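Exam prep: given the inputs below (a chain plus NG6), describe the expected output before reading on.
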Amino acid sequence: MIRKFHYLLLALAGLLIVQSCATEKKQAAEPTKPNVVVIYMDDLGYGDMSAYGATELSTPNMDRIANEGIRFTNGYATSATCTPSRYGLLTGVYPWRNKRAAILPGSAPMIIKTDQETLPKVMQRAGYQTAVIGKWHLGLGDGNMDWNGSVTPGPNQVGFDHSYILAATQDRVPTVYIDNGKVDGLDPNDPISVSYKENFEGEPTGKDNPELTTMKWHHGHNNSIVNGIPRIGYMKGGEAAKWTDTDMADHFLGKVKDYIKSHKDKPFFLYYAMQQPHVPRTPHPRFVGKSGMGPRGDVILEADWCIGEFMKTLEEEGILENTMIIFSSDNGPVLQDGYYDDAEELVGNHKPAGALRGGKYSLFEAGSRVPFMTYWKGTIEPGVSDALVCQIDLLASLASMNNVEAVPTDSKNFLDVFLGKSQKGRDFLVEGEGRGTALRAGDWVMIPPYRGAAVSKNTGIELGKNLDYQLYNLKEDIGQQNNLAEANPEKLQELIAKYEEIRGVKTKKLEPKKKK
Ligand code: NG6
Ligand code: CA
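Solution:
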């Protein structure tokens, strides 16, 4: 009797296995995985969106992602500037491990190795089509760049099937778009030359020819003039290929829409790297004057509009519910970043960093704590999460979502946190401004001693550098006003030990340099 029962059980189990195989097969045949889109802003601060508390600016489309998805209050970029943050996002490796992960000139070779693990490679292995549209700023080529031939290696060699990018920043040459490794619209009879060392003979510069500029430089930004805007670096030729600054947002949006429409039948991973509100801030005329805050506010409204159009496209194509959107920014805000554009004069009561201290370039919170949202209609329940999360963790988390192996990096799997199923984020995060870093642990942050100006003379931003240790309790003191290093030596030692362990360095209080 008992044996018979066993046979029955076995037969039942066999039936179940056959059945589950069949359903698995069926699932694999249907495109059930969500598309994944990372919308990445450039210099958008923690306080620059109404969903994060801005009252003087209204960002309804970004807010929609925040309010219908999860709004993270402790979401971080890996750095307080662009290149290192993008490096962390795309490779899962802390940028301070790579000496070259610092703000790059437009002529720099690529800093991601072609055999390195990357987020888009993970997505490729998971069966996704992958694309980057927008700002790159991770270097291109291997040191002998010919802008007139193949601009390679680049995004297409590190995991992106499709790329349509600007090489570095809007304020750096070359001021052209690169379409899958070829300068878009280049006339072979007017080749491009680029130098970050010296000017090309007879070419005007912002420094020598201010009469040719329509935007005035404040610091840096006095080399080649393109479209009346003096840039960083020298460039000659490529006239027909040069971009129109005021069209850039529409141009990238057009590429994004085309990509979605032509790739919607299979899952895609799209990295939509917007250029706002980085300098030079050049809103399309439709947005000029709309914010009352000058160009910086206007381009935030322009970006918000683009995001609305992007969402509308997903809806029209019937794929909004099957698309996971991750929204964040590469670093915190700055008002004066090199041009006279009234950003400081017209900011009024707007607080680009919200209640946080510092800004772009800073070791204080506003440097790398940024807006961070995840949205997936019908799957992610709307809410607010205080979990400590970082862009560096998207690589391992999206690998886990797709059941693919990822090469071990600093990236950790927090998929449940990003999907709102758990509130338990990181215990520790090394945050910082590139090579200079601090440790966030629970509610605490410890900034080790650094030499250097406390306040940047160019941007006016408090950089967070001090010869002594700083310790803040962010729960009670989000504005980092009370240094508790002396009052709480035990906590300080605990964080120093952890920091030194993770970074593999020794720290010490520094003495002022003796005047000779
Ligand atoms: C700085 C530029 C700044 C901006 C930044 C990069 C000067 C003096 N300042 O070197 O204007 O371009 O680099 O910004 O040139 S980021 O967001 O791409 O990191
Ligand atoms: Ca940036």
